[in-house]
Write a structure and sequence with these properties.
326 residues; alpha/beta; Rossmann fold; Dihydrodipicolinate Reductase, domain 2; 2 domains; 8-stranded mixed β-sheet; 6-stranded parallel β-sheet
């Protein structure tokens, strides 16, 4: 069993912790928070017995094998590097870094320390998304794809009311492309690989982060359009268009199934069994990397390419973070 510690006491941390337990390959051994009482309240129901209020004490604890990091984006790089240098395996919530430079540094440290570093991009490991990727080979020559993920943020009203939530604060390396938009970029990279060209536009808030935007990824024979927003909801279906058929992907980030619309008019619904907690599969992949004592080269390259694209998007749209100029 892998002794896992959790950084972050929010809903996503709890969901991942439950997912890790569901794999039966992890024990939730510890929790880090700036306040020990909060760590205890969060970790107790999960079975944790070790609680930390400094990263140093967490890194020095020999009872911890691996750490899940779900702190604000701007802290991912520093925390991951400190823990990897202490010999801990790390799975870091998406996006794993503020920019490409940080992501490159993180993987370099993982290799130097012979530990596992993985970005927690759950979609790539979902059974139905994997089936959709396989189906690309059967829809003819690709020409167009449109991936859309737009979700009105529960924190947006706080921003409108004059508060400064992390979600819309550049100090925490946040905004639409770093949050909601990540899923569209990451899904495109997983499905189609690295684009030859990236073109982006966005509408910025007064805080300096993007509220919503669009990205055009050019490939040699086809284009992929990405739509993202944290200030509006989308109810449209993402799709991949081939000459023989199109794949329709409702809510591709969770990917509970997909549809194949053939040019002949035939409509095929595709779905395989998938667990309720969608984070279970990324937790299983992380455990397998630890067991193999080897990072998955595909996952590493995917994370670096995602970081490259998002960094380019921010450069083109004028979104900058303190982390870009440390």
């Amino acid at each position: 069993m892998i002794n896992l510690a959790i950084i972050g006491t929010n809903w996503i941390s709890e969901k991942f912790a439950r997912a890790a337990l569901e794999t039966e390959r992890f024990v939730i051994r510890g929790v880090y928070s700036r306040g020990l009482e909060k760590a205890q309240q969060f970790g107790g129901p999960l079975g944790a017995t070790l609680f930390f209020d400094t990263l140093e004490s967490l890194g020095n604890c020999e009872s911890i094998d691996a750490v899940y990091i779900a702190s604000p984006n701007s802290l991912h790089c520093e925390q991951a590097i400190q823990l990897m240098r202490a010999g801990k395996h790390v799975i870091c919530e998406k996006p794993m870094a503020s920019n490409l430079k940080e992501a490159t540094s993180m993987f370099a440290v993982a290799q130097e320390q012979n530990v596992i570093l993985m970005e927690a991009f759950k979609t790539a490991y979902l059974p139905n998304f994997i089936e959709a990727k396989k189906a690309l080979a059967n829809i003819g020559k690709l020409h167009k794809a449109h991936l859309t993920y737009c979700q009105y943020s529960s924190r947006y009203q706080k921003y409108l009311d004059g508060e400064n939530p992390n979600t819309f604060n550049p100090a925490f390396s946040n905004g639409s492309i770093m949050d909601i938009g990540f899923y569209s970029v990451a899904a495109a990279v997983e499905l189609f690989g690295a684009p030859s060209r990236v073109q982006a536009s966005a509408h910025l808030l007064e805080s300096g982060v993007d509220a919503h935007g669009s990205v055009l990824l050019n490939y040699p024979d086809f284009d992929v359009t990405l739509s993202h927003s944290k200030v509006s909801n989308s109810y449209s279906t993402s799709e991949v268009q081939g000459e023989e058929a199109s794949l329709l992907l409702p809510d591709f980030s969770e990917c509970l199934g997909f549809d194949k619309q053939l040019r002949s008019g035939e409509h095929i619904h595709c779905r395989v069994a998938q667990g309720e907690n969608s984070m279970m599969y990324e937790a299983e992949a992380f455990a397998q990397m630890i067991a193999n004592d080897r990072m998955d080269p595909h996952a590493t390259q995917r994370s670096l390419e995602i970081a490259r694209i998002i960094t380019l998007v921010r450069e083109q749209t004028g979104v900058s973070f303190p982390a870009d100029n440390p």
